[in-house]
Amino acid sequence: MDRVEIAALMNHYFATVARSLESIAAQEIERLGASQVRPDFAGVHFVGDKATLYRVNLWARTIFRVLVPLREFYCPNADILYREVQKISWDKYLQSHNTLAVSCTGGNQKLNHTHFTALQVKNAIVDQQRRKFGQRSTIAPQNPDLLVNVHIQQQRCILSLDSSGTSLHRRGYHPAMGAAPLKETLAAALLEIADWNTSLPFLDPLCGSGTLPIEAGLKALNIAPGLWRQKFGFESFPDFDQELWQQLLTQAKKERLQQLKAPIWGSDRDAEVLTQARSNSERCGLEHQLQFSQTELAQLEAPAGCGTIVCNPPYGERLGVARELGALYKMLGDIFKQRFKGWTAFILTGNKELAKQVGLRTSARFRVYNGAIACTLLKYELY
C-alpha cells in the first residue's frame, strides 16, 4: 500500500473534554496510537485510521466523545446554515429507516439558541431525504442511529458525526449514584494528575458511590472503560467494520490483569452510598478487588505504611453549607498529618476558604473544573 492509499484511510477527529483536562486527554490519546495530536479549548484534535477511532472510544478514560468532522463553512445565520447542510449527501451516512438526532454547541449573534440551531440542521437533513426518497428519518433524542453534532463559533460552523453516541463518561457501571457524583472522566483525570503508581495502595476516605476507587481499579487492572457500554455511535456508521471491532474487543479482554498489585480502599460514613458503591463495582467485575468499609472520618486509620489518597469532599456548592464544612476540612488535615505519615494526599475542592481549613502546606496545586465549578486539586506530602 503506497503513501497516498494510507493517507486516504486516515481521518481527522476531535475529542471533546472538560475544560482544564485537554493536555491530560491529549497524552492519553497519543498513547492510544493517534498522530498529529493537538490540544484545543475543551477538546483534542487528532488523526488516525478506523482502528484508532474505535480504540480511542473503547479505551480513553478522560474524554466525553469523539467527533468525525464532515464540513466546516461560513455560517452567519440560519438561512446559510440550512443551505450549507443540504450540500452534504446525507444518504452516505443515513437511510430513511435510520433514526436521527442533532446536538448543538456554541452560537453567534443570529444563531444564539442551540435548540433552534439543531432544529435547522435537522430540517435540512430530513427535507433532503423527502426530496430524494419520499421518506425521512424519525427523530430519536435517545440512542439514535446517527447523532449529528453542529458547533457554531463566531461566523464558522463545523458539522460532525458523533462516533461515541452517549457521552463516554457513562461507562455503564454507574446506574447507582450518590447525591453529588464525580464524573468518571474527571475521576480518571485526577488519578493521572496525581501520578498514582498502581503498585501503591490507594484510598478514598470519602468515596460516596465509589467512582474514584472504581476508576482506580479499572486503571490498575488495565480494563478498557468502554467494555460495559451497550453501543457506540460508530456501530451505526455505514462503513462500520464489525470484524475489526471484534478484534479490538477480544484484545481488550485479553489485556485485562487478574489481580491488583496493591490494595484499593474506599470508605464512607454513609451505609446507603456504600451499598451503591459495592453495586457499581460489581457491575464491572471489581467486587472482589475493591475493599469498601463504613468508617467515620474521625475513626479513619492508615491501612498501610504508604500510599496515595485522593478524595472529593463536599465544598458547599451542592452538598452541605460551606461554613458548616470547615470542621470536616480541619479534621481531614489533622488525620492526614497524625495518621498518614509516608502517604501522599490529594483533595479536590471548589472553595478556597475551606481549603485553608486543612491546615497543611500544599506541595502542588492543579486547576481543574468539576462541571462548571472551578476547582483546585491540592497535593500534600505527608511526612
From TrEMBL:
Keyword RNA-binding: yes
One Pfam family matching this protein: UPF0020
Claim: Methyltransferase is one of the keywords in the record: yes
GO molecular function, one term: RNA binding
Annotated THUMP domain residues: 52-163
Keywords: Methyltransferase, RNA-binding, Transferase
Domain of life of the native organism: Bacteria
Protein name: rRNA (Guanine-N(2)-)-methyltransferase
Species name: Chroococcidiopsis thermalis (strain PCC 7203)
